[in-house]
Design brief:
By secondary structure, the chain is an alpha+beta fold. The protein has twelve helices and 42 strands.
Length: 684
Amino acid sequence: MNYSRGLWSAEVAESGRFSLGHAGGLSIEHAGPSATLANLETLAPGPGWDFHACGGDALELEYSLPGRCLITLEIELADTSGWLRLSMSLSNLSDSPMMLEEVCPLSTHAVKSDIPLDRCLRHGNDLCDFTSMYPLGGIHRSHACGAFAHGGGSYAVVLGFASLGESFCHIESKTNPNGFEWLRAGCLREGIALEPRETLTLPPLLLGAGPSLSSLMRQYAEQVAESMGCRCSQVETGWCSWYYYYGSETEADILANVEALAQSPLKDHVRVIQIDDGWNLPVLAAAHGMLVSSDSPTSPISAALDADPDPTHHRVWGDWQAGAKFPHGMRHVADRIREAGFIPGLWLAPFSVDKTSQLRKSHPDWLVQGEDGPEEYWGVYALDLSHPGALGFLRETFARVFDEWGFDYVKIDFLLHAVQPGKRYDPKLTTAQVFRQGLQVIRDVAGERFVLACGAPMGPSVGLCDGMRIGYDVSSRWYVPMNLKSWPSGNCNIRAAAVHTLWRQWMHQVWWQNDPDCLVVRDYGSKPEIDMFHLMTNGQHTHEPPYGLSNEEAAGWVRLVWMTGTMALLSENISELSDERMALLSHSFPLNDAPAHWVDWYEQTGIGILQSAGDRFRVGLFNMGDDTEVVRVPAGKLDLHSDWSFTERMTGETFDGSGATVEFPPLPPHAGRIWELTGTRENA
C-alpha cells in the first residue's frame, strides 16, 4: 500500500513493515511491531503477529498478538505544515497485567538521506544534562526530541514527541561517520502495569524535515506549546543574591543592594530583586501539627530567633520560614523591596526535604520511600507529589510566600528530586505525571505571579512555569573542570552556561522565558564564592583555575545574553562593582526584543552563530574555544547579495565586504561579537 500527501509518503508491505519518505530525500524504514516493546519477550509465547491496514485521512496500521496485545499506529501525512504525525496505542488483550518499561512507536535500522546528515543535536533532560551539536558518531540519547543535520545547513530532520507531560520520552540513536546504525523514539513507562483490557495511548511522535534546522526546531517547540500550553510574557530582568553571596547574605545585604541599584544607571532596567538560598531557618517550630509563621510576634519562631540569632546556621530545606539573618521576617523585606520600586522575589527548593527538618520528622509518609523508609537522594529526601498531604503542604507553603509575605516572583530549585525512583503513594503515575501534578499546585497558587523553574525536568514543566533555567551555574570563572565525565563543559562557569544558552535558544518565548543564569562580570572572586567552591569541591577547585573574568569573557557573556533576548538577572555586589564592569552591564539593556535564531551553518564546532532582525539586521558570533577563530559564512546564509558594511554593537569596530562568503574579523577565544549591518542588504 502506498500513501502520500504533501512532502511525505508511506509505503506498507504485506508483512506490516512500513517505510516513511520525505521529498527532500529522506527514507526511514520501521523495524516492525517486535521492536515496539522493549520487554516484548516477557509476553507469553504464541502465534505470530496479525496485520491489518486501511487508508483514509490517515493511514492506520493494526498489529495484534491474539489474546495478548494489540498495537495501533496512525500515520498522518501533513498537507501544509510539513510535519508527519505518528500516533500509537497499545491494548492489553490478556488476563494478566503487562509490565511496561519502554514503548517505542518508531524503531529502525534503516535511515537514509540523499543529503548527508553529519551533525547530531542532542537535547538534555534538565539544566545539567548536556545539550550541544555534535559530529555524527556514537550513541546519543536526547530528551523529548532529537535532530540531525547537514553541517553545511542544507537539510535537517527533527523527531520529537508532541506532549511531554505523560512520561519521559527520548530519541536515541547510534551513528557512525557514514550514517545510522539504529534510531528509536521511546516513551518510558517505568514498569507500570497495563492492566487487562486497558489501553495506553502515547503522545504523538512528530517528524519534520527540511532545509533549515533552526526553523524546524522552532516549529517543533510551537507544536508542543499548542499541545501543552505556554506562558510567555514580558521578559524578566532583575538582581539575584546567589553568585556573590552564595547563601551568606543577610537582610542588610539585600537592602543595601536594593539601595545601590535604585541609585544606579540600571534602576529603570532591573525589575526583580530575588533573594536566593540561605534565608530560611534550620529548625522549624510547629504547633498542633501546623506550620507557624515567623512573622507572628507571638509565635515560637520569634522566640527561637531571639534565643539563637546566629547567622551562620546551616540551611534546612523543607522548613520554609525566615532565618536569623532576616530578623524582621520575609514580609518586611518584601515590603522594603517593593517600596524601592522593585518586584520582590524568593528562592525555594519546594520538592526537597532535609533529613533534620521538622517536615521529615512529622510526616515521613509524605516522602518518596525506599525499602526501609524515606529514600535519600544527594543528601536530602524528596516530596512524594502523588501524596495528598504533600500537595497540601505545597499549597500552604506558597500561599504563605505569595499571599502572606507578598512575594510576586519565586525561583523554585532542585525540582529533579521529585522524579527520582522510589515508592510513591500512587504507583500508577509515571514520575513525569507526578512531577506535573506537584508543579500544577504551585501554578494554581501563584496565579499570574512569576514562577521560575530551576533544576527541573524540562518536558513536564512546559506550560506551568513562566521561566526556565536552561543551563549550568555561572561564577566569576570562564571554566572550571568539574565532573567532566557527566558535564563535558564542567559546571559553575560561564562557558558551560553559554553552550546551553546557544543550543537551547529555540525554546525561548515559545515554551517559557529562557533563563541562561545570571550576568556575572566581575574580575575577582568574592570571599563567599571562594568559600563555597572550597566546600563544594573538597578544595579541588578552590583557587585554580583563577577567579575573575577577562574583559573579553565578561563582554562575551553580556553579548550572548543580550543577543538571545533571554532573562537577564545580575548577580554582583553593586556597590563593589567597578565603573568599567558596570558600563559593561549597561550593554545588557534594554533587552533585545528581536528573536534570535541559529544561522544554518554548523561547520565550525565550538562556534555559535546567531542572527536576528529587528530595528536592524544583526549577526552574533560566539567562540567557546581556546583559540582565535576566523568565521566564514556563505553570504546566502545571511541573505546578503550585495556589498555590505557591519559595525560591532559594543566597540564600534567596522568591516566591509562583498562576494559569496562573509569573512568576519578574527574572533578571540572566550569571546563574542555582535555585528550590526549598516550598509546595503538585498533580500533574495
